[in-house]
């Protein structure tokens, strides 16, 4: 049995040796060898050291209550008001931990007793919510404001849970003569003041350094309507987003601010905007505001359609009012001055008809009557230039008389169709008699082609 176990052990060792031989020279072996050579060239292997930011080390020392370490870090330049990602300072943490000695140490070394965290909670808020009366007394004695409000508009009194704490804070409020209602509206007053300064060109809005939320987000979440109105008048982007992709409408909908939602919709905000996780304002809305948002969506769609319809109507109306109506009457305006003068002369002095039958006279009179209203649209300037076209008019009448003398009894329709052919033959073949033509048909073709073309 022992011999069998020994043989198995030897076989296992041999397989391991074979495996190592196959590994030598492989890509993995070469990579590890290069790393070893690099380390050797730099002075041998060195274990990397993990270094923490000084602020994090300072916060850890304060939480541990190590005053000697805290003192040493302060000498090295540590910021006593350093805040973590939640905005909490070492003083906040000491109040929460009920570490009265560390609270005293930090305050004596210059820690800000009214510094708010990301939600506006001061160290006094923290002490009041935890019911630590002695720490609250110490903070008040060192200028902590009992009228400070957090992001929800709450005083330290509003978050107090112990009767003793409430009595302490009420007594201090009465002692300092603080108007509680006015104190709760202090943030809105300051924001409105800043917004009006911006409107007058004396200020700018800076997003929160961590959340990138704008004043529009804050006012929307808290329902500061007057602040919203002023900011929107300043042209602040109604669809600006914070680090989570939330627009002001997301904030207003989530915290149930109906009037703020109405205001954003009137300013044509994007109701379908999605945050970083694909949620629309309707998805994050307070359940009591869902129906309202659906109605506002319909209202905004109607407003958008109305504006789209109004825009072309306004443009068309403005366009028509600037263009004279007569520009569309191209049948007259496209005639040259020479053509219009000649037409006026022919209508004013019609050529005498030679040996016309009664029927033909009536046809000519009817055609002449139809052409007179059109000729009457000539301007007074054309009438004043009649004397300048006497020679041309005389030539025109001679040609018309020659055509009338050679006219036959061909029907009016066939004569009108051959008018252009006859006119061109007058020019190209002067020895050949022109085709018969009616005077009325000749006038019609003159208005379309011009006298210079028709007369040759």
From TrEMBL:
Give the residue ranges for region: Disordered.
1-46, 315-456
Q: InterPro entries in the record, alphabetically?
A: Ankyrin_rpt, Ankyrin_rpt-contain_sf, PP1_Regulatory_Subunit
- Which residue stretches does the UniProt record annotate as biased composition, category Acidic residues? 381-391
In this chain, composition skew of type Polar residues spans 399-424
Major place of residence: cytoplasm
Checking PANTHER family in the record gives: PROTEIN PHOSPHATASE 1 REGULATORY SUBUNIT (PTHR24179:SF32), PROTEIN PHOSPHATASE 1 REGULATORY SUBUNIT 12 (PTHR24179)
Q: What does this protein do?
A: Regulates myosin phosphatase activity. Augments Ca(2+) sensitivity of the contractile apparatus.
Protein name per its UniProtKB record: Protein phosphatase 1 regulatory subunit 12B
Protein species of origin: Nothobranchius kuhntae (Beira killifish)
């Amino acid at each position: 049995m022992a011999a069998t176990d020994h043989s198995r052990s030897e076989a296992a060792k041999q397989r391991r040796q074979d495996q190592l031989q196959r590994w030598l020279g492989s890509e993995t072996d070469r990579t590890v060898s290069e790393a070893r050579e690099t380390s050797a060239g730099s002075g041998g292997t060195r274990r990397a050291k993990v270094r923490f930011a000084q602020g994090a080390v300072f916060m850890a020392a304060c939480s541990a209550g190590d005053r000697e370490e805290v003192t040493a870090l302060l000498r090295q330049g540590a910021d006593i008001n350093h805040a973590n990602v939640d905005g909490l300072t070492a003083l906040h943490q000491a109040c929460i931990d009920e570490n009265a000695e560390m609270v005293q140490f930090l305050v004596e070394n210059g820690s800000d007793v009214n510094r708010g965290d990301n939600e506006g909670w001061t160290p006094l808020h923290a002490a009041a919510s935890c019911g630590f009366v002695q720490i609250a007394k110490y903070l008040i004695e060192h200028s902590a404001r009992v009228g400070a409000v957090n992001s929800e508009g709450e005083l330290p009194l509003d978050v107090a849970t112990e009767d003793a704490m409430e009595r302490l804070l009420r007594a201090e409020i009465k002692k300092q003569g603080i108007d509680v209602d006015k104190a709760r509206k202090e943030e809105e007053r300051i924001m409105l003041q800043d917004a009006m300064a911006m409107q007058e060109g004396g200020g700018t809005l800076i997003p929160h350094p961590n959340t990138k939320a704008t004043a529009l987000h804050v006012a929307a979440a808290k329902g500061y309507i007057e602040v919203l109105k002023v900011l929107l008048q300043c042209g602040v982007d109604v669809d600006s987003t914070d680090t989570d992709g939330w627009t002001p409408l997301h904030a207003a909908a989530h915290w149930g601010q109906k009037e703020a939602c109405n205001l954003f919709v009137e300013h044509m905000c994007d109701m379908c905007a999605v945050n970083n996780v694909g949620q629309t304002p309707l998805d994050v809305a307070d359940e009591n505001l869902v129906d309202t948002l659906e109605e506002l969506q319909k209202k905004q769609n109607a407003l958008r359609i109305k504006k789209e319809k109004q825009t072309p109507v306004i443009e068309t109306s403005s366009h028509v009012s600037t263009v004279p109506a007569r520009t569309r009457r191209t049948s007259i305006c496209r005639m040259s001055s020479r053509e219009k003068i000649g037409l006026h002369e022919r209508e004013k002095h019609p050529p005498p008809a030679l040996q016309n039958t009664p029927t033909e006279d009536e046809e000519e009179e009817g055609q002449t009557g139809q052409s007179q209203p059109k000729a009457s649209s000539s301007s007074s300037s054309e009438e004043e230039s009649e004397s300048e076209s006497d020679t041309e008019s005389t030539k025109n009448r001679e040609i018309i008389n020659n055509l009338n003398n050679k006219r036959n009894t061909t029907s009016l329709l066939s004569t009108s169709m051959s008018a252009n052919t006859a006119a061109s033959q007058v020019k190209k073949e002067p020895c050949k008699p022109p085709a018969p033509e009616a005077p009325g048909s000749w006038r019609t073709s003159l208005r379309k082609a011009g006298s210079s073309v028709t007369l040759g």
